[in-house]
Each structure stands twice: as C-alpha cells, then as structure tokens.
Specification:
CATH class: Alpha Beta
Radius of gyration: 20 Å
Structural class: alpha/beta
Shape: globular
Order of helices and strands: HHHHEHEEHHHEHHHEEEHEHEHE
Oligomer: single chain
CATH topology: TIM Barrel
Number of domains: 1
Number of helices: 14
Amino acid sequence: MNSELKCLLDWLSEKLDTDRLDSIAARYRRSLAFEQVDRPPLVFTYPYPESAEFQPYPHREIFDDPEKMLYNELVHAFGMSIVMNHEIGADLPWTVRANFGTVLIASMFGAEVEQNADNPPWVRPDCERKITPREVADTDPKDFSQGWIERAARTMQAYQQLLQPFPELRQKLIITLPDLQGPLDNLDLICGSELFLYLHTMPKEVESALSNLATAQIELYKHFSQWTTEPATGYCHQHGVMLKGNILIRNDSAIMVSPEMYRGQIAPHDERVLLECGGGGMHACGKCDHLTDIFLSLPSIKSLDLGQPELNQIDLIHQRARDKKVPLIRSKVTPE
C-alpha cells in the first residue's frame, strides 16, 4: 500500500463516526419509504479546494492503480468528498466504486475504449468497422474475459484487500456496483448515433441486441455483487447517495426517442433488468419528462433519479412519483 493511501485510511479510521453513519442511513431509508423524517437527506457538490490536506491524483493515473483509484474515490468523487464531509456535515454515505466510467459493458461487445489526459474513459465509435446490432445480439453476454470487465473486478477485489487492516472502516465503507449503464445506453455507445436510425430500419435486430445487453447487465450485476458491500438488500448506493432498489439503470439516450418508441421497444428490456435484479432505480440526464410517466409505470421501478431536474416539470413529476411511492433521488433545491 502506498504511503498516501495508508495515511488517508489511518485518518479516516480516526474520524469514523459509526453512529453518525448509521443515523444518515436511517434518514435515507425513512425518506425513501415516505416516512416522517426530521429533514430529507442533504448532500452538496462543490469543487475540491486546493488547500485541502489530501489532494487527488491526476485522473489518468488511477485506471491501472487500484490504490490511487481508491484514494481518489475517498477524496473527491461525484463532486462530493468523504474527507471534507466531517467539516460540512452533509448526509454523505461513505461509498467507493471501481470507477471506470460508462464503458464496461460496451467494452465487452467490441467497443473501442479510449482514455485521454485526465478525462474519464469513453467509447470512440469505429467509423471504418461499425458494430451492428446483429453482432451485438450474437456476442456472448456472459464472457467476462472481454473488454475492461476483469480490470474492474480486480479493482474491487483490491479494495477488499486494501481495507482488511482497517476492520471498522471496512465495515462502514460501502463498495458499490460500477456503472453498468442500461440496455439502450450501452447499444448507443457500441453502435453510435446510427442506433436511432436502426430503431426505425431494423427493429428486430435492435430488439435482439437490447435483449442480449439486458442479459449482460443482469449477469454482471450478479458477478460484481460478490465484491460489493451494500449493507441492506433492497437499497444500493450510486452517485454518492442511497437509493431504493438494487441497481440503477442509466437511460440518458432515451431522451432522444418518443414515448411510444420507448414504451414499445426499450421499456421491456429495462423492466427485465430491474425485475431480475430485485427492483431498482431509473436515471436520466437532460429533459426527460416526456418519459417519466412510463418510467413510473414499470412494475419493478423503485426510485427515479433525474440528473438535471431543473430541465423538467419537477413539481408535476414529484406529485406523480409520490402517488406511486417512488422516491425522487438527487432533487436539486435552492438555498431558500
């Protein structure tokens, strides 16, 4: 273990307040269940100060070094900081993940992953050899030797080993699932923007591809879960907060399709992932209020996470979600 990580883990072990973390978790669970609370859970996002004692490594250095990745997850992730939170006092759960961005499942299916400077990894569509929905449908969704999957698994295993000398910290630090995106987002990453043409021109091939990607997500959920440390079934942590459900589907690409197309061609695959993982949440950035009623109608939906609630009719969405007892996650509010 490098000296910087050892120093940080020693420091966090000294600052660990198990009663406070238990209180935060209870506040989340009561809020997610629509029970009475003293106040809703509150977190803040902010730039990390250059004057802070612990400074993150350059992002480009973490992908081949689990110690540096764990260090950065503890210092500043999702615009929040476990290290700084003892001063801020927000309701921040202590969570870390194998942070390889959005590319994991896409990399299994032949997508070319690129990481440049201090940017997160991304998929660069191959303009000369395009991956078709048929190829996606014919790829083994359980071959975890492909792409970056083993890399992420080794990182999660390394987290477990690195935390062994710190038993109290290990008990309270939550290792979460990595970002597995969702069937549509993963097909968009693999095929590029031509996916939206394929939805019209080859719907049967897209159907088969989405079904295979849903299988991959379900199987990876099971595979990675052997190294997660979520404390309670029926709840998980993503984006630095607790949500109701065992998995979070990312559906950013869905904002580009009509409600009819989402309901008929995409929603069945999302529901299958949610159902087979024991229920979960739905995430979408951008303006998605033309889809939120359909999201809320999925039988296995447990939470709704809007990345940019200010772009949507948030009061109306909240009313409809409340009627169905589906909590909204990460709603942004003004100081007033």
